[in-house]
Design a protein that fits this description.
- The protein has nine helices and no strands.
- It is mainly α.
- The chain folds into two domains: about 90 residues, Rna Polymerase Sigma Factor, Chain: A, CATH 1.10.1740; about 60 residues, Arc Repressor Mutant, subunit A.
- About 5% of the residues have low confidence.
Length: about 170
């Protein structure tokens, strides 16, 4: 693909990238960094001038391919942030807990994004892609799961989401 085609695709899918970033990162500033990281990764993969040929072979839709790249970057980001914050002090944990309680009391109901952030990453991925309108088969292409496994993960994720929302 040439630069103008890639630019068009990135513009077209920027809202999708933003939603994926918001699903994986709560901090707005880090969301923007993550969107840029996703965009650069997508550009590099689709840019045929760098390697002579694009890595996109048309085995899936462009939307699915871009989503896969974005989710992989988002997972890398989450894992990097977990390692960075692996052993917070008890004061930091207490502050975070009190801040979460304060925010929960300020709002009458928990919103979907907050509930999504509490799901384990594999479940978060499936639900986020379902919200984007992907089928179980398409969702399975992103983390490399079979359709049945994706459906089962979705069912478990919805149960956990329900518990999170009911708990709050």
């Amino acid at each position: 693909m040439d630069a103008s085609q890639i630019t068009q695709l990135l513009q077209q899918f920027t809202p999708l990238l933003a939603r994926i970033a918001a699903t994986h990162e709560a901090d707005k500033g880090l969301q923007e960094d993550l969107i840029q990281d996703m965009s650069v990764a997508i550009w590099r993969v689709l840019d045929s001038s760098e390697s002579g040929t694009s890595a996109f072979r048309g085995e899936a839709s462009v939307k699915t391919y871009i989503t896969r790249i974005a989710h992989n970057r988002a997972v890398d980001h989450v894992l990097k942030e977990l390692r960075r914050h692996e052993s917070p002090s008890s004061d930091e944990m207490l502050f975070d807990h009190k801040l979460q309680e304060k925010n929960a009391h300020q709002e009458n109901a928990i919103d979907l994004m907050t509930a999504l952030h509490q799901l384990p990453l594999p479940y978060r991925q499936v639900i986020a892609l379902q919200l984007e309108g992907f089928s179980f088969a398409e969702i399975g292409n992103v983390p490399g799961l079979k359709e049945d496994a994706t459906a089962q993960r979705s069912h478990r994720a919805r149960k956990q989401l329900e518990q999170i929302i009911n708990r709050n």
